[in-house]
TrEMBL record:
Full protein name: Tyrosine--tRNA ligase
Subcellular location: Cytoplasm
One function term, GO molecular function aspect: RNA binding
InterPro entries for the chain: aa-tRNA-synth_Ic, Rossmann-like_a/b/a_fold, S4_RNA-bd_sf, Tyr-tRNA-ligase, Tyr-tRNA-ligase_bac-type, Tyr-tRNA-ligase_bac_1
Subunit and partners: Homodimer.
Catalytic activity: tRNA(Tyr) + L-tyrosine + ATP = L-tyrosyl-tRNA(Tyr) + AMP + diphosphate + H(+)
Catalytic EC class: ligase
Keywords carried by this UniProt record: Aminoacyl-tRNA synthetase, ATP-binding, Cytoplasm, Ligase, Nucleotide-binding, Protein biosynthesis, RNA-binding
Positions with a binding annotation for ATP: 240
Motif 'HIGH' region in this chain: 45-54
Short name of one Pfam family: tRNA-synt_1b
Length: 416
């Protein structure tokens, strides 16, 4: 018999493709239907911005709030000092306190755009686990918390096992990470009545640990829910592009480049991404995702507009769409393209086209730029580039020039 969710949140999670697994599907659904449920997702402060790989779980928190519950964004000011070893082949580089604080400030900018932090019953909380982890007494922690963990069981978790199977080192520091994450859930329940931890499916073992610990120490029933690890239809991890991570902070990736990332979605992923990353009705997402031929491009533009508007605002989305239209349809340069401004000193008597392609971010190395030219994929002001030895003189930059790599990636170069 099919179970029909009682709560709006579980119904939306199921319909839109957010739900991978749940520790007690029916129990959680009933708790959500009965009243306001505080729920958290943890984010370690390993970079100055969150990236597109985080966006699905931020959307989960947004839907949680929209359906009458209380999101908690837990920033890992404490756990970042250790580093999550889950499914990594090497130890994370350790960051200093100033870098962690700087990263947290950058991450907060993104959350504030998508989630509402206020004093209402459903107003989100922004917390930092350094609040309870920094002051821990090691001996007390070992005695009161450590005794609840079985090393045999911890070794059986897939995230640890995969590392050991490959005979890669797992330091004691990293091994402690899952105990600290479990302790976070216990403290959030004790301090804020948090009943639910959510995360990607790679966090399943860590989440279950927290539920077991809280049951043993506080005799409280809490829940875990995971989202699927998102890969594109060609099997790549979501959010990775040739140019690197797709950052969510506008000062690390322009709204135009962000818009362009979504516009370049493959046909097969368009319907799925509309459900996960926009708030359009499910039926509309399915209709758009089923379009064929050139019509699917309209669906991709809608996807790009909707996601960019959510994160950067409607004006930024409209400006990006307009720039794209000018670039693709009219061969114009557009006002909003990524722009490289060269000083007269940098330019000197001239600069090679290969260097310009690398400096503008259209290629990762000189070798890659030369290959792009050799394969006919590079253009200067919409004309094919054939000579990798070509020099750009100051006179060539009297007006800005447009460089292109393939049909979809462009940059302006101007003299500052």
């Amino acid at each position: 018999m099919t179970y029909h969710p009682k709560s709006d949140f579980i119904r939306i999670m199921t319909e839109r493709g957010f739900l991978a697994d749940c520790t007690d599907y029916q129990g959680l659904d009933e708790a959500l239907a009965a009243g306001t449920v505080p729920a958290y997702i943890g984010y370690d402060a390993t970079a100055q911005s969150l990236h597109v790989g985080h966006l699905m779980n931020i959307m989960v928190l947004r839907w949680l709030q929209k359906t009458g519950h209380k999101p908690i964004t837990l920033l890992g000011g404490g756990t970042t000092k250790v580093g999550d070893p889950s499914f990594r082949s090497d130890e994370r580089p350790l960051l200093g306190p100033e870098q962690i604080e700087s990263n947290i400030a950058g991450m907060k900018q993104v959350f504030a755009k998508l989630i509402s932090y206020d004093d209402s019953d459903t107003g989100a909380l922004m917390l930092n686990n350094a609040e309870w982890l920094d002051g821990l007494n090691y001996l007390d922690f070992l005695r009161d918390i450590g005794r609840h963990f079985s090393v045999n069981r911890m070794l059986s978790f897939e995230s640890v096992k995969s590392r050991l199977d490959r005979e890669q080192s797992l330091s004691f520091l990293e091994f402690n990470y899952m105990i600290l994450q479990a302790y976070d859930f216990l403290e959030l329940n004790r301090r804020y009545g948090c009943l639910l931890q959510m995360g990607g499916s790679d966090q399943w073992g860590n989440i279950v640990n927290g539920i077991d610990l809280t049951r043993r120490v506080l005799d409280t029933e809490i829940f875990g829910l995971t989202t699927p690890l998102l890969t594109t239809s060609d099997g790549r991890k979501m959010g990775k592009s040739q140019g690197g991570a797709i950052w969510l902070n506008g000062d690390m990736l322009s709204p135009y480049e962000f818009w362009q990332f979504w516009r370049n979605t493959t046909d097969a992923d368009t319907g799925k991404f509309l459900k996960l990353f926009t708030e359009l009705p499910v039926e509309e997402c399915e209709r758009l995702g089923a379009l064929q031929g050139s019509e699917i491009n309209e669906a991709k533009i809608i996807l790009a507009n909707e996601v960019t508007a959510l994160l950067h605002g409607t004006e930024a989305a409209e400006a990006a769409a307009q720039t794209a239209k000018e670039v693709f349809e009219k061969g114009g340069v557009g006002d909003d393209l990524p722009t490289l401004t060269l000083s007269p000193d940098e330019l000197g008597d001239g600069i090679s086209i290969v260097q310009l392609i690398v400096k503008s971010g259209l290629a990762g190395s000189g070798k890659e730029a030369k290959r792009l030219i050799a394969e006919g994929g590079a253009k200067l002001n919409d004309a094919a580039l054939t000579d990798a030895g070509r020099m750009i003189a100051p006179a060539d930059l009297a007006t800005p020039i447009k460089l292109s790599a393939g049909k979809k990636r462009h940059a302006l170069v101007q003299l500052g």
